[in-house]
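> forwarded from #structure-qc
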């Protein structure tokens, strides 16, 4: 069945097992174009495994994923996706500038367009004065900021971010979320994992993940209203079977 014009991504009955151990179980969800869709859950819930499937860098053991009408995984789709892993995949011996140039060229950028995009993402993440330093000298937070800049450099149609603001100070975190809202308003789709409740509130819709299962999907306000909760945390506990 073809994906509808308003749906960017569809996961249908997705499961993932490793050595007989089921990490994800029967997950079905749809993400609309130009929305910020959050995946909320504690560490070990399966969020990272799920976003790897949604990005097409891993393959489901059961079910399937469609992105922009194409079944994943498919190599040609990678240039349409910006992916930021939970573990920074950077060349430590190179400078930030060299990393950005390398990944930008890998995504087909060169010349003046590459320079413009580099300047934009560097300004966004606040690494301007550290561009020529080797990444090996960076703090954990600086590496996260560089990883985000790399994910954004080619202006992807779909941005998939796994815990993007871990280790980043509150002022920079707010700046990043402001940019994510602008990117979404410009038509790109954003999928972001988090275990931080105030970040979950910033998403258009949320999928709550626990023990490898999708336990609820809805807007932050809708999830709170449906459970009679004052906070997203209370709603998550309710859907997880914890009743006060």
């Amino acid at each position: 069945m073809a994906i509808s014009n308003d749906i960017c991504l569809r996961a249908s009955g997705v499961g993932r097992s490793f050595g007989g151990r089921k990490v994800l179980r029967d997950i079905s969800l749809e993400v609309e174009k130009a929305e910020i869709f959050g995946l909320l859950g504690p560490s070990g819930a399966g969020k990272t495994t799920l976003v790897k499937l949604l990005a097409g860098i891993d393959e489901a053991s059961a079910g399937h994923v469609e992105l922009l009408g194409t079944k994943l995984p498919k190599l040609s789709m990678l240039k349409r996706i910006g992916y930021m892993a939970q573990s920074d995949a950077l060349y430590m011996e190179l400078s930030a500038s060299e990393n950005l140039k390398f990944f930008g060229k890998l995504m087909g950028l060169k010349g003046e367009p590459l320079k413009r995009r580099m300047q934009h993402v560097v300004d966004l993440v606040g690494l301007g004065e550290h561009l020529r330093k080797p990444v090996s000298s960076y703090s954990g937070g600086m590496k996260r900021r560089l990883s985000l800049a790399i994910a954004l450099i080619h202006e992807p149609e779909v941005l998939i971010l796994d815990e993007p603001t871990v280790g980043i100070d509150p002022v920079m975190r707010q700046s990043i979320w402001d940019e994510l809202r602008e990117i979404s308003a410009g038509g790109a789709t954003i999928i972001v994992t988090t275990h931080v409740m105030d970040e979950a509130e910033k998403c258009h819709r949320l999928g709550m993940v626990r023990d490898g299962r999708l336990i609820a999907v809805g807007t932050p306000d809708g999830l709170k209203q449906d459970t009679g909760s004052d906070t997203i945390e209370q709603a998550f506990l309710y859907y997880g079977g914890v009743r006060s």
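QC bot note: The chain is about 35% helix and 25% strand. The longest strand covers residues 7-18.
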